[in-house]
Known about the structure:
About 45% of the residues lie in helices and about 10% in strands. The protein has helices spanning about 10-20, 35-45, 70-90, 100-115, and strands spanning about 25-30, 50-55, 90-95, 120. The relative contact order is 0.17.
Amino acid sequence: MSHPQPLTPEDRLDAAKRESEIPRIVAVCGSTRFMAEMAEADLRETAAGRIVVKPGCDLKSPHKLWADPGDAEALKVRLDALHRAKIRLADEVLVVGDYIGDSTRAEIAYARSLGRPVRFTHPEVDPEG
């Protein structure tokens, strides 16, 4: 007699989202050089009825929160972990831009390891493409 496998936290989250009739959640990924394109993607995905999560800080733009290099490095580590959490929360990932750097490549691999569908605004940059 086989025993049912316990649900993973991700399975429980997916079930709770379905039961609560939460709209699909899209995690926007990409280089922060494409922040304007991410804002446009947010607008289009929201208008299509989806919840959007995306990077909220652009460490390449000056700001007092990350003016100190030590603070910036610590913040980058926290933001990377936060973005992975956004990918876990999401039902799918949308990669914005015509360039894929190491961080975005790692986010794509992470999303795919979780079984999240990944869409691209520029499909030709898909590392598996």
